[in-house]
Amino acid sequence: MPSYSRRNFSGDTKLSGVVHMPEGQDAIQRDLNKLKKWACVNLMRFNKAKCKILHLCQGNPCYQYGLGDEGIESSPAKKDLGVLVGEKLDMTPQCILLTQKANRILGCTKRSAASRYREVILPLYSALVRPHLEYCIQLQYPRHKKDMDLLEQVQRRATKMIRGLEYLSCEERLREMGLFSVENSRLR
To answer: 70-93: per-residue pLDDT in tens?
Structure first.
């Protein structure tokens, strides 16, 4: 009877460090070597296709690192806990992703809801769409007006879906529905 060795993958392992000088690069590489050794001792391995290096900030020397005898690829952005972090620490890609997701949910709601009355649309919007917009605002306040406009555009679209309110201004629709603008929801 053949014997099989059971191996697991180590998931969601993160290693970070600040590198100002080559000694910092060496320290990170030593830590990577320790992780590799720990994984081997515990019969675990890293999925090297998922291992990425994210170099943050401008002027970063972008050193190359390895896991064992294989190099690790650099990545311009990484998504973790639902947040897209890029090398420039810019919020725009995160706002774009969240508005796309919110718009898809809003589109499904529009196609599947049999009624356009406030009693139907408002609870669906509040439960399924608005949390995505508020998460973006609470997480990291968008610095650029264009990012905030993307988020506000989703809310404008949602409030226009309600029968009887489609011809009011956005501010009047929000007041009629008892909602705050997405920007002002951060202040609550």
So the answer is: 777 777 666 665 565 665 666 777
Mean pLDDT of 121-149: 77
> 52 and 19, same structural domain?
yes
81 is a domain residue:
no
Q: Please, what is the end-to-end C-alpha distance for the chain in angstroms?
A: 66
Q: Are 99 and 150 in contact (CB under 8 A)?
A: yes
DSSP 23-58: HHHHHHHHHHHHHHHHHHHTTEE--TTT-EE---ST
How many CB atoms are located within 10 Å of the residue 128 CB?
15
Residue 86: its H or E element = strand 83-86
H/E stretch holding 67: strand 66-67
Residues 95 and 180 in one domain: yes
For the segment 142-178, what is each residue's pLDDT rounded down to a tens digit? Answer: 667 787 888 888 888 888 888 888 888 888 888 888 8
The residue range of the domain holding 115 is 90-185
